[in-house]
Write a structure and sequence with these properties.
This protein has 481 residues and is α/β, with parallel strands linked by helices. The protein contains 20 helices and 16 strands.
C-alpha cells in the first residue's frame, strides 16, 4: 500500500509539479475529487469509466464504485464523450440531459504524446432551470440599477428654457438677453430677485441654453440643516459617522460635474461652508468627509439670493472674497409690481394650466377683478399670483369669468390700500380704464400687438381681455387697428 501511495505521489509530482504535499494541498486535492457542487468523471480511450465521484454515483442510483468499468453512454447517453474521444475537440458550457434533467457541463480530452487516451467530464449539479433563474435574477437586478441611474439622471436635470419665461415688458426682455449672454460663457452667475420672481426658472434656462444634457443640481441653502450641510455638499466615505450610508455618498458638487450647480438662498450658507465653497470654486476640487482622496470637478455655479449680499458683506455675514468670486455676471429680476404690464400675460397663461389641473373652464378675469390685480403690489410676486388664481378658481368653480368677489379679501384690501397712497397715483378697481392709466394701457396694448404681429385675437388673449374690449380700447385711444 505504501508503494502504491509513493507511486501516486511521484505521478503527481511529475504531472502537477507539486513537491510539497502539505495538509492544505491534500485538502484541496480531496475537494477537487469530491466537489459537492460539480461532478467529475474520467473515462479511458474505450469510453469506459475509470472514475466517477460519489455524488454522481448517488444521483445515478449506483453503489459506491459501481460506475467503474461501465460505458459512459450506458449511464449518460447524451454525454458527447464518444465524439470527443474521436475528434479531441473540447466542449465547454454544453447542455446535457442526465436522468431527464438538464445540466450544464464541459468535456476535455486527455492526451499522452499527442494521442487521445481518455477524457474528463464535469457537470454542474444545479439544474439549468436553476441557472436560468439565477440569470433572470441578475437581469432583474441590472434592470433595477439601470432604472435607478435613469431616475437619478432625471432627478438632476433642468426642464425649463428661455421660452418658458413669460412677459412682454422691456424689463423681462432685458433679463433674458443678459442671461443668454452669460449662458454662452463659463462664468459663474449671481441671480438677485425677490421671492417668487422665478430665480430657479431662469437658472434652468441658462443651463439648458448650452448644456441641456448635463446634470443640473439644485440645492436650497436654507433648507439644509447646519450639521448636515458639509456632508450634503461634499459627500462622505462609508463609516464616516453614525448613520452614514454603508457605501458612502457622493456630494452635490460631485454630482454636478460637467454641469450646473444651482445654490438657492446662497446668503444662508454658514461662514464655515462659505470658506469651503470658495476653495471649491477656486481649485475646482472636492474631498469627501472621511477621505484623503481629492477629486477634480468642473461645473458652473449659479447662485441666487433675495437679499443684498453687499450689505451682508458689510455686516460680516458673507465673505467678501466669495462675493467677488460669484458676482461675475449679476442678473437682477425685477419684482412684479415694477412691470405690471406682464400681469395679464401671467393671468392668461396660468388660468390655462389651472384649468387643466382643476377641470375648470375659466378664460379671463372680469374687468373689475383684473383692475384689482393691476392695482395690487404683489409682495409674493408670481408665486402669489398663481396662488390667488388657484383660490379664485376653487371658490368660483363654474363659469368662464372670475369676478372680483371670488378674489381673496386681502387682495382687494391690499389693492384699495395701494390706490389710497398719494405717492402711487393708481386708480380704484372700479375705474380700471380712467385717464391716469391711459398711457400704461396704451403701452401694454402696443406691446401685445407687436408680440402677436398685429393679430387682434392673439393680442386680446395675451392681455387676458375679451377681443371686444381690445377693439373698444383701440377706438378709445385712437390707435390704428
Amino acid at each position: 500500500m505504501n508503494n502504491e501511495k509513493a507511486e501516486f505521489l511521484k505521478i503527481l509530482e511529475n504531472v502537477l509539479g507539486i513537491y510539497d504535499f502539505s495538509p492544505f494541498i491534500a485538502l484541496a486535492l480531496r475537494f477537487f475529487l469530491r466537489n459537492p457542487y460539480e461532478s467529475l468523471v474520467v473515462v479511458n480511450k474505450q469510453g469506459e469509466l475509470e472514475f466517477m465521484d460519489r455524488g454522481s454515483e448517488k444521483f445515478l442510483g449506483l453503489v459506491e464504485g459501481g460506475a467503474k468499468g461501465r460505458k459512459i453512454t450506458d449511464l449518460i447517453p447524451d454525454s458527447g464523450i464518444p465524439k470527443l474521444l474521436e475528434t479531441g475537440v473540447p466542449s465547454i458550457g454544453r447542455i446535457f440531459y442526465v436522468n431527464e434533467v438538464r445540466r450544464i457541463g464541459s468535456l476535455y480530452p486527455l492526451t499522452r504524446d499527442k494521442e487521445i487516451v481518455g477524457a474528463v467530464g464535469r457537470l454542474v449539479f444545479h439544474s439549468l432551470e436553476e441557472l436560468e433563474r439565477i440569470n433572470s435574477e441578475v437581469y432583474r437586478l441590472k434592470g433595477e440599477v439601470k432604472s435607478l441611474r435613469e431616475k437619478q439622471k432625471h432627478q438632476y436635470c433642468a426642464i425649463h428654457n428661455f421660452e418658458n419665461i413669460l412677459g412682454i415688458s422691456v424689463a423681462v426682455k432685458d433679463v433674458i438677453e443678459l442671461a443668454k449672454k452669460a449662458a454662452m460663457t463659463d462664468a459663474d452667475v449671481l441671480i438677485i430677485g425677490e421671492s417668487g420672481t422665478g430665480k430657479e426658472l431662469l437658472a434652468q434656462a441658462i443651463h439648458n441654453f448650452v448644456n441641456p444634457e448635463k446634470p443640473f443640481v439644485s440645492v436650497n441653502s436654507s433648507a439644509i440643516p447646519f450639521e448636515l450641510a458639509e456632508s450634503e455638499l461634499f459627500g462622505y466615505e462609508k463609516g464616516t459617522f453614525t448613520g452614514a450610508s454603508p457605501i458612502g455618498k457622493p456630494g452635490k458638487f460631485e454630482i454636478a460635474h460637467h454641469g450646473t450647480f444651482f445654490l438657492d438662498e446662497i446668503s444662508s450658507l454658514p461662514l464655515s461652508i462659505q470658506a469651503k465653497l470658495l476653495r471649491v470654486l477656486q481649485e475646482r476640487e472636492v474631498e469627501r468627509l472621511g477621505s484623503t482622496r481629492i477629486q477634480k470637478i468642473d461645473f458652473r455655479l449659479i447662485g441666487a439670493t433675495n437679499t443684498d449680499l453687499r450689505t451682508l458683506v458689510e455686516q460680516g455675514k458673507f465673505r467678501e472674497d466669495l462675493y467677488y468670486r460669484i458676482a461675475k455676471a449679476i442678473i437682477h429680476i425685477p419684482p412684479l409690481r415694477g412691470r405690471k404690464e406682464d400681469i395679464p400675460v401671467y393671468v392668461n397663461y396660468f388660468l390655462k394650466t389651472i384649468n387643466a389641473r382643476f377641470g375648470t373652464r375659466f378664460e379671463r378675469l372680469t374687468n373689475e377683478a383684473l383692475s384689482c390685480f393691476m392695482d395690487y403690489d404683489w409682495p409674493g410676486n408670481i408665486r402669489e399670483l398663481i396662488n390667488v388664481l388657484e383660490q379664485a378658481c376653487l371658490k368660483k368653480w363654474e363659469g368662464t369669468e372670475i369676478p372680483l368677489g371670488s378674489l381673496p379679501p386681502e387682495l382687494i384690501t391690499g389693492s384699495q390700500l395701494s390706490i389710497s397712497s398719494p405717492s402711487k397715483r393708481v386708480p380704484s378697481p372700479s375705474t380700471f380704464f380712467r385717464e391716469d392709466r391711459r398711457e400704461r394701457e396704451k403701452k401694454s396694448i402696443m406691446q401685445a400687438l407687436a408680440e402677436t404681429k398685429g393679430n387682434k385675437r392673439k393680442a386680446a388673449s395675451l392681455l387676458g381681455i375679451p377681443r371686444s374690449t381690445l377693439y373698444n380700447k383701440l377706438r378709445e385711444y385712437q390707435m390704428a387697428p
